[in-house]
Specification:
The structure holds two protein chains of two kinds.
Chain A (H helix, E strand, L loop, with lengths): L1 E8 L8 E8 L3 E7 L5 H8 L7 E6 L2 E2 L5 H4 L2 E4 L10 H8 L8 H10 L13 H14 L4 E5 L7 H14 L5 E5 L3 H4 L5 E6 L2 E7 H7 E6 L9 E5 L2 E7 L10 H9 L3 H15 L1
Parallel strand pairs in A: 3-8, 3-9, 6-7, 7-8
Antiparallel strand pairs in A: 1-2, 1-4, 4-5, 9-10, 11-13, 12-13
Helix pairs in contact in A: 4-5
Chain B lengths: L8 H14 L12 H8 L3 H13 L3 E4 L3 E4 L3 H28 L3 H16 L8
Antiparallel strand pairs in B: 1-2
Classes of the chains: A alpha/beta, B mainly alpha.
């Protein structure tokens, strides 16, 4: 669905955030985009939705360049930034002023989502709390029924029941035609919801894999002692050493996304090589 | 539903469904919740639930009626039992035997413990037919 090729981008007068970046995203998946603060996650999302324009390379949706901002692409994508802006309108007025840009917008589902998220239906949006505003915009974005839905830190500001409702709503919203991209630091909020993990680090995408593939290749464990074990990465914790090892027995362990992320950005090349090497071996 | 860390989520969902079947809550020809309903209920990716359903379909525990959804297959309980037995014999029993051997527990001692356990938990009268 999205093809990013040889993308280079930097804000004017600033160093490049991405250099020769490649990324390909397909329909029917929920992608979790991870990166350190300042790695450029939000900027990458903005390049995807036509709010930032690459210096080199291109970002295409269904083969069409996004930076030309063609209407048929824009009406089929919805972007929810981390800092949202809501006008001084009620949900109903907001629908009548904005929904017309999204041909597949479904008003009934919008009000249903608002109800599920417990957002008051007749209040002026700008008077609501940050969390309520965010949920109202998420409800609107889902009701827009676009094939591409991009969310930057959507669970920030959501209370505990709202996070549960968010997971349920997103689980229900994924279809074979839809591609959902979520950038997040709160991996625990979303770890059974996302099925593919994308890691942005030092101007490049260093990982784009399904969690199933990762679990097939790597074992995550907590061990009292790592002597005699082939360990790719280890971190000390209260319970012992948290380690990542090659998955040699074909057993399953839950992918500890935080640990994996720390391992990847620590410049651990043996881990990345192992992920890539097995890919190479499997190809033959 | 709380997921454990040492088994794939799709298999844990399969075990959850298998339990409903073994307990008789979902009899043969009972409609299984749709992929979407199950994903929402468990707050997981629908692709994970799809993987569960494909797995259970391959085990002939559920089957797909085109356009209607998934249903509990005839003889599903027997299939679940056969599959679980195979997994138990392959995975759990060797560990158990190793412990018996290492700790020097005799089969006679074990038999006594087993009989006491079954009568305490299931009662002599409700002995499970094999």
């Amino acid at each position: 669905m999205i093809e990013i090729q040889e993308l280079s981008f930097g804000y004017p007068g600033k160093p490049l955030l991405f250099q020769n970046l490649h990324l390909s995203l397909s329909q029917g998946h929920i992608y979790g985009l991870l990166g350190k603060n300042g790695a450029g996650k939000s900027t990458l999302l903005k390049n995807m939705v036509g709010l930032c324009f690459p210096r080199h390379g291109r970002c295409a949706i269904h083969g069409k360049s996004v930076s030309g901002r063609p209407v048929d692409l824009l009406e089929d994508l919805y972007f929810i930034p981390e800092e949202i802006y809501v006008p001084a309108l009620t949900p109903q007025k907001f629908v009548s002023s904005t929904a017309c840009f999204y041909p597949n917008f479904c008003e009934d589902s919008f009000y249903r989502y608002l109800q599920e998220f417990e957002v008051p239906q007749h209040a002026v949006l700008s008077k609501l709390s940050f969390g309520q505003q965010k949920k109202a915009i998420i409800a609107f974005g889902l009701a827009a029924n676009t094939r591409l839905l991009v969310m930057d830190e959507p669970t920030n500001g959501l209370d505990i029941p709202s996070k549960v409702q968010f997971r349920k709503t997103i689980a229900a919203a994924l279809t074979e035609e839809r591609c959902i991209v979520i950038s997040t630091h709160q991996v625990r909020d979303l770890d059974s919801l996302i099925d593919r993990l994308v890691v942005l680090h030092e101007q490049k995408i260093i990982l784009n894999s399904s969690l199933d593939e990762i679990a097939e290749k790597l074992t995550f464990a907590t061990l009292p002692d790592t002597a005699g074990k082939q360990v790719l990465y280890a971190e000390d914790s209260v319970r012992g050493k948290q380690v990542i090892m090659p998955n040699l027995q074909g057993t399953y362990s839950k992918v500890e996304i935080e640990l994996l992320f720390n391992a990847l950005i620590s410049g651990n090349s043996s881990l990345l090589n192992h992920l890539k090497l097995t890919e190479y071996e499997q190809a033959f | 539903m709380e997921f454990r860390d040492n088994e794939a989520i799709y298999l844990q969902i399969a075990a959850y469904i298998s339990e409903r079947i073994l307990l008789g809550e979902w009899p043969e020809e009972h409609k299984v919740p749709s992929v979407r309903e199950m994903a929402v209920e468990l707050q997981v990716n629908p692709n994970t639930v799809m993987r569960t359903y494909e797995f259970l379909q391959k085990q002939e525990v559920i089957y797909n009626k085109r356009g209607i959804g998934f249903f509990v297959a005839p003889d599903a309980a027997a299939k679940v039992k056969a599959y679980r037995k195979e997994r138990f014999l392959e995975q759990d029993l060797p560990v158990f035997f190793t412990n018996l051997y290492l700790l020097g527990i005799s089969l006679e001692e074990l038999q006594g413990l087993y009989e006491k356990f079954t009568s305490d938990h299931y009662g002599a009268s409700q002995k499970k037919e094999s």
